[in-house]
Amino acid sequence: MSDTKYYPTIGLEIHAELSTETKMFCSCKNDSDEERPNVNTCPVCMAHPGTLPVPNEKAIENVVKVGLAVGGEIANFSEFDRKNYFYPDIPKGYQISQYKYPIVSGGELAGVKLTRIHLEEDTANSKHDRGNFSLVDFNRAGVPLMELVTEPVIHDAETAMKFAKEFRLLLQTLGVSHGNLEKGEMRVELNISISPDPNVFGTKVEVKNIGSFSAVGKAAAFEIERMIDLYEAGRQDEIVQETRGWDDVKQGTYSQRKKENSNDYRYFPDPDIPKFQLHDMFNLDEMKKNLPELPWQKRDRYKKDYGIKDEDIESYVVDQTLGNFFESVCKILGNPESIKIASNYVTSDMVGLLAKDEALKMPSPETFAKLIAMNADAKLNSRGTKDILAMILAADSDPEAIANEKGLIQQNDEGALRAAAQKAVDANPNVVAEYKAGKESLLMFFVGQVMKETKGSANPALVQTILKELLK
Ligand code: ADP
Ligand code: ZN
Ligand code: MG
What we know:
Radius of gyration: 30 Å
Number of domains: 3
Structural class: alpha+beta
Largest sheet: 10 strands, mixed
Low-confidence stretches: none
Oligomer: single chain
Mean pLDDT: 95
Strand content: 15-25%
Bound molecules: adenosine-5'-diphosphate, zinc ion, magnesium ion
Shape: elongated
């Protein structure tokens, strides 16, 4: 290892299929769940000669929405271009895309500066896994595909992964794409370079075939490491501009092809599609006002209104159902202390239980809030709260009735607890001696004895105070 420091640079290109009713340039159904091949097709998306594309305004609107959300500039003039290349999944001989006039320019997401967001059509799907021949499924051909490009301003794998997650969250919040990486609805491509000089870019390598968020992080880390190793070995001339694939089994990247240049595509404006004026098509101010609450706005609001842990906030922002549940609970509880308690029980207990057992269901916010209120009022200790939580997830019923019936109401009566504590002390003279000799952790042994004696209903904090007194 030399002492040279290497500066990694990453720029992302992310494609996302828009979840519109119909395809980008024809009225075929846009259905990523369709399993039968070639059913959502027509002469337009099958590239029959003489057919004319008609742009899907909803898809354009969705890209504008994303652009407004990230604070990008919405172009006034925009157009579609032909990106020419040959491949069986693109039978027109070109893909309709955008080149000089993307719908969105600039903007920022998760602290990363964006270059552009444009709209294009997805290709058909080639199946090469059937033996000696390949098949082409046109269900995906012509599905609206949004492409986001970031500036080369990311410098570590973790940030690249976080960015991709945040982008998907934004798409889901706006309701414009499902963004499922495993299904290929969202495809993340990494551009990575390494340089010993922070002011000079190194040769960039593109990494594709990334099927999950964790693979985004792992592929970036692997590629950075691979290139640094080449530098360290004095073999940096082996870093060439190329496309590499991520192999999830081998957990590594491999060379796919040396990179073509964008001028090989001979882009030119598609003469069959009218150019469009976005500022005339949409009321941008109105659209901006009507955007839903965005993930980062929600984070700020949760922080300000509830003062809960960032980790908890993230659970609510990522899982809208859980977030809505928590908000309803907060409305019922009202006070900040109970809300913090509620958040702990939601994220560490309820979520865990629900994940373990499919038969369990979220209770009503009223039921849950009542349970938390009992805990906050010291009517239930944490053991009792957890036990009742498990019961109300199995069947939504009144926590107070359960507590009474099962004898779980917290024992706060000092006299009774003192008696139980005295009993534990008297029964264990040896442990008392050890405790007095300095082994203070044995206090918890006595707490345990009292909890047992009271069938778990004792107020543990009160028991500790009493025991400390008795053992002085
Ligand atoms: P190309 O013409 O090869 O497609 P672009 O300039 O359009 O290259 O950039 C494509 C992506 O690569 C962008 O996300 C950009 O941020 C990123 N990128 C460009 N140069 C570098 C570099 N030296 N290192 C890492 N990423 C880069
Ligand atoms: Zn069609
Ligand atoms: Mg490019």
